[in-house]
Structure formats: structure tokens, C-alpha cells
């Protein structure tokens, strides 16, 4: 995605975009740019209103056959850490989102406990990340805070164990997101190794209430959590698109 297009879609200042899009080693004669990592602490009062940014359009189906698996990072079946997640893999072409005329295909989603991003100083029980790929290979992640108190079994109560079997699941993806699609948008990175940049983040303002059994099961699976700590903002602007 070009600098001008990224600035248009995500409200990123040109200087910050250059820092994330161009490796420091390739900038001959310039000082190394600071890494722009994720997650971050989002403060709603500091977010810049950006009503001109394109709306988020969801193309998720009501029924999708996915594959649920435990992603191990260390090859050890008895140790769990922040690098490991339970992940649902999405077949190609099943689901997508749009920003303006650009379509981003949903590759997978996974969970972190507690939430990796914070909103106004609050950590949520679980954060769900919907990972998408754009037409030029760019990465877009939609972040959703989950709280117990609803009826949807969004976090499966029967979770795959590390080194366990892969499980087929049928999921209502269309009901996964809240009706209010207001988002905080910023440029960052993956939150697991290799922490690649740039990643375009859209973090939904409104949390989704889900069945408590799933969040409890996930926290039992990762009793010490599987979240990366918040990273310095380093001058980045967080935009807010009400929707």
C-alpha cells in the first residue's frame, strides 16, 4: 500500500508512515526510525476524530467451517507463554472486510488473555484478533475486546490442548462483532514473534459480551496469560472513526 493510500485509509501522518513502511537499513543517509510496535495503551481522549476515514464494512458469513488448533511456539507440550494462542484458521475466500474499495481477506482469528491493548487504562478479560491480508500482502488486524456476560460461545469452552488434535468447528462469524463498529486506528506490528511491521490496527471501541464459560476456559488454559505488554507509542497518532 502506498504512503498516501495508507494515510487516507488509516489516518496515519506521512512521517509515521514512512517510519513503518520503509526499513531503516534502506534509508540511505538517514537516522534509523524507531520501531512502532503493538499493542499500545489507547486513550480515547487523545484519539484524533477522523470522520473522513473510510467506514469498516464486514463480509463475514453466518456459517463458516473452520479449523481450531493450538499454536505452540516452543515445542514443549507442558509450558505455555505469551507467544502461544488458540487459533481458528479460515479457508480462503470465506470472509473479508472492506475499507473503501480495498478488500482484506480473513486468514485466521485467535485470542489473548488478558487483553493486549488497554482502553482508558482498562484490561479486558480476553481480546480477539481477526487477522486479514490485503491485495498487496499487507496485514490488517481487527481487535475486539471480549467480556463475560453474554450468551454467544465466541471463545470455545472445549479448547484444543497443546500438542493435541486439530478440531473442526462451525462458527457464526457474522455475529462475532458488535453492531457499533467505531474503531481506534493506528499503525503497529504483530504482537508475537517476529513482531513484523507494518500492521494496520483497527481496535473496536465497544466490547462484545460473550458466554463466561469460554473466557474462564481460556484463562485456565493460560493461567499466566498469553499477552504481550503494551509498547511505547513513540509519537504515533491514534485516529478514531465513529461508526
From TrEMBL:
It catalyses: hydrogencarbonate + H(+) = CO2 + H2O. Keywords: Lyase, Metal-binding, Zinc. The keyword tRNA-binding does not apply. It is an enzyme of class 4 (lyase). Pfam families: Carb_anhydrase (PF00194). Residues 8-242 form the Alpha-carbonic anhydrase domain. InterPro entries: Alpha_CA_prokaryot-like, CA_dom, CA_dom_sf, Carbonic_anhydrase_a-class, TAT_signal. The keyword Iron does not apply. Its EC number is 4.2.1.1. One of its GO terms (molecular function) is carbonate dehydratase activity. Gene3D superfamilies: Alpha carbonic anhydrase (3.10.200.10). CDD domains: alpha_CA_prokaryotic_like. This is carbonic anhydrase. It comes from Virgisporangium ochraceum.
